[in-house]
């Protein structure tokens, strides 16, 4: 019997015709919007060659503006991903604790930081603490505020991914751990959490896109990231719109690569799971405990 879950029926001839019509209409509308934008840019002389020439003829556009801004974005995103991962795993496991004195406060923290907009946390962290604190230097304060805000928000999202990932596992996983004498906490750490993280890996990689895009909010607190660099570049060369468009293209390219990476990881996990199922389909009968603990007989021990 097939284990695939069918979420909806295959569309019939009328539905396929309707989808095709809607697709054509959507493409036409999108092309019309692109034409309108290009026309407005042409009327404002934003498509003139001299507006775009610095990106080709002047190396300082890249060495003094765009590449340093890209480095600032990458640095903030990388630090935020590391700290958000730690935050998410710790609070995700805390929410799964059987001790209510641990799970309830952890749930309050996660839900609070998931609800507060990232920009508000950045502004509050910078102007409310780091800008007037001796903990970090004035040059590092914007970076600290950006990383803290991204860590709290994305860490809370990862904590929810951890919790939902563990809940999505078959009940037999925890029962198998308890049956061999493991405590609930040991079962969570040794059996459930590794499997949940593996299953959530595509979603975790996809969260990198969110971190990278949200790092652009640092422009509000003068953090020198890519959007801030594009703003400064536009002021220096009097080509604000082209500068923002180039920065947008860089963001799109990086996010596209991250999306492709997430899809590649998802495909690898599916192939890996399929190969494991094929290797774990022996002639011998698999016991309930082995099924629950994810162990197949596979031709002897």
Please explain how this structure is put together.
The protein is mainly α and 301 residues long. It has 2 domains: 3-42; 59-290, Orthogonal Bundle (MetI-like fold), CATH 1.10.3720. The chain is 75% helix and 0% strand. 29% of the residues are buried. It holds the Pfam family BPD_transp_1.
Helix content: over 70%
Total domain units: 2
Radius of gyration: 25 Å
Helices and strands, in order, run as HHHHHHHHHHHH
Q: Report, as a whole number of angstroms, the end-to-end distance.
A: 28 Å
* Morphology call: globular
CATH homologous superfamily caption of the largest domain:
MetI-like
What's the helix count? 12
Report the sheet with the most strands, covering strand number, pairing sense and barrel closure.
none
CATH fold-level assignment of the largest domain: MetI-like fold
Q: Which second-level CATH architecture of the largest domain applies?
A: Orthogonal Bundle
The top-level CATH class of the largest domain is: Mainly Alpha
Overall average pLDDT: 82
Secondary structure layout plus pairing:
Elements: H1 13-43, H2 49-52, H3 54-57, H4 60-95, H5 100-115, H6 118-128, H7 141-167, H8 171-179, H9 184-214, H10 226-237, H11 240-279, H12 288-293
InterPro entries: AA_ABC_transptr_permease_3TM, ArtM/GltK/GlnP/TcyL/YhdX-like, MetI-like, MetI-like_sf
Keywords: Cell membrane, Membrane, Transmembrane, Transmembrane helix, Transport
Domain ABC transmembrane type-1: 70-262
